[in-house]
Amino acid sequence: MRSWIITCVLLLGLLPIAQAETAEEKGLAIIVESDTRDKGWQDSAADMLMTLRNKKGRESIREIRVKNLEVDGDGDKGLTVFNQPRDVKGTAFLTYSHALVPDEQWIFLPALKRVKRISSSNKSGPFMGSEFAYEDISSFEVEKYSYVYLRDEVLDGQDCFVLETRPLYKHSGYTKSTVWLDKAEYRIQKIDFYDRKDSLLKIQRFSDYKQYLGQYWRAHTMVMENQQNGKSTTLQWRNFSFQTGLTDKDFEKNDLKRQR
Amino acid sequence: MILSVRDKLLVSLFLIGLSPFAFASEWTGYSAAEYRYFQHESPNAEPEQNDLSIVLAPEFYHEWDDGNQSLIISPFLRLDSEDAERTHADLREARWLLVKDDWELQVGIGKVYWGVTESQHLVDVINQTDLVENSDTEDKLGQPMINLSFFQDWGTVDLFLLPYFRERTFAGKEGRLRSQLVVDTDNAHYESGAKRHHLDLAVRWSHSLGDWDIGLSHFYGTNREPVLQINQSFSALNPYYEIMNQTGFELQNTSDAWLWKLEAIRRETSSETFTALTGGFEYTFYGVFDSDLDVGLIGEYLFDDRNDERATPFEDDVMMGARITWNDEQSSELLIGVIQDLDSSDAAWNIEASRRLGNRWKVSLEGRFFSVDETQSALYQIRNDDYIQLELARYF
């Protein structure tokens, strides 16, 4: 009898927990769903045009070819090759990304024909003088952040989940970010980045989403606006291709030397 | 000219055949104007304090077979206002590359870099140094080669057949950065009867294991570094190229912002056998003082067991350097370094800075300063050749 009462009390105590997901659980569930929907693309290649705009509106461009390989149970592998500006043409980066241990990264310097292993602890620094930090363009892994669901909100006419994420990896330039994902397809629509002093640093917007292989959504325009220095950077993506047959063999140190 | 239907068909087939060719081919490269100002008058009679030169370095690239075969041709030309020896042309690369799943074949004139350290490049022996380009020995002449590479889980193996030897370039009578006696490059001598046609061989194994990058190599063939011998009339130095066996070892550990580096060689020639090494670190402070600036500190120790300043000035020396990267739109960079001899007050300073202008131009500043009192040092001959160099390059 007594044990029966205890069981009842315990069950009653458990009920609300079992029913109502915490904000952390809901946040994580949304990200896991978004991540799961983007699994299985195997490999991809695309061209990126990066336009840097300073406060006076003066522009400069970078033209980059990007190849990625999906790695099951680990971070993706990536190859990035510069075509513009011309003085760095042929400069190539190879990255083996990991969730929480540091990425492995090599750079190829075409003038010396030198392949150099470089430190990957530069997460918060600008990528090629742009408003994108290295951590903004690196491979996304669920384990890299903690998540809290904040609210539902309509953004530009789309029903969205709003989450707060905090980086769990070392050397991030952010304390937290606010992320908007649309409820229809779980695609990121907007990110607000907060700097180490917790003030709003940058706003990134994603647009021109197109679907590939009937499943994978890719934003073709990304705009990063720095709220503190007035500069902005636009990424325009073109020529996406998926499942082109790239393998681990195409993401080796030796491959850096012959990228164009 | 009237074309028959058959001819028209042939022409169209020809054009169709050409179109992927046109699509996958490109011309790139750069041209540059360079001005050097030497701070002191030369101790030798002829050289001036001002030197102007221009460079043209185009590159033709063509790929086919889905990118699995490619051709690169990159000629190089420098015209120098003062030194006839520095006015020179070279084929930096002219090679065909075949890429297969587990192996690659490269045939033609190529360029290969081995090594990890910054202050000197002991292990890097495939290409000859184009010394008239820069005293830092980082410019190389194109090397004829057949290079076969195998890729395995346990690393990469590179095999090299090097059928033709390139002689080192040296400044001429009118040039700076030379010894009192000019090196007579028209009078090179060889240990091997085959002279520059001696077939040199090299093999290298390299691998990445987590935080470690490792390389082990062996080279048998003509020593890229000549012994300089005074000629019979005591009027010039003749380069003498010996046959050498050199085993090289490279190691780098990368953890967080630390890079730990080691290069070591064992070289045997008929005149000497020695061991040399370079080892040290590079540590980078990212985003210093809440800015976008990165500051990297470099420290390396240079050792050579011959302990002979005439053979190498870097027998017991320390290199200290700082690399500042602005991470701005113009990719501004500054590198300052000094190599200090530990047994004397001799030192060599080095400054390199560069910045892009717009999308196609780049301006670079370079300075080399020598503080050498040791008369036995290999650097003693160029002790008055401190210079500042400004270069403006346009990339196309």
Provide structural commentary.
The complex is a heterodimer of chains A (260) and B (396). Chain A is mainly beta. Chain A has a single domain (23-258), classed as Lipoprotein localisation LolA/LolB/LppX (outer membrane lipoprotein receptor (LolB), chain A, Clam). Chain A has helices spanning 2-19, 23-37, 134-137; strands at residues 43-53, 59-69, 77-84, 92-96, 104-109, 114-118, 145-155, 158-167, 174-182, 188-195, 200-212, 216-226, 232-242. In chain A, β4 and β5 form a beta hairpin. Chain A is globular, with a radius of gyration of 21 Å. Chain B is mainly beta and 396 residues long. Chain B has one domain: Beta Barrel (Porin), CATH 2.40.160.100. Chain B has one helix at 5-23, and strands at residues 25-38, 50-64, 69-80, 88-99, 103-110, 143-152, 155-162, 189-190, 200-209, 212-222, 227-230, 237-241, 243-255, 258-268, 273-285, 294-304, 316-325, 333-341, 347-357, 361-371, 387-395. Chain B has an 18-stranded antiparallel beta barrel. Chain B has a 3-stranded mixed sheet with strand order 8-12-11, with no helix packed on it. The longest helix of chain B has 19 residues, at 5-23. Chain B starts with a helix and ends with a strand. Mean pLDDT of chain B is 92; it is low at 12-23. The chains are: A mainly beta (260), B mainly beta (396). At the A-B interface, β6 of A face β13 of B.
Please supply descriptive tags for the structure shown above:
heterodimer; A: 260 residues; mainly beta; outer membrane lipoprotein receptor (LolB), chain A; 13-stranded antiparallel sheet; 3 helices; 13 strands; 14% helix; 46% strand; B: 396 residues; Porin; 18-stranded antiparallel barrel; 3-stranded mixed sheet; 5% helix; 53% strand; globular
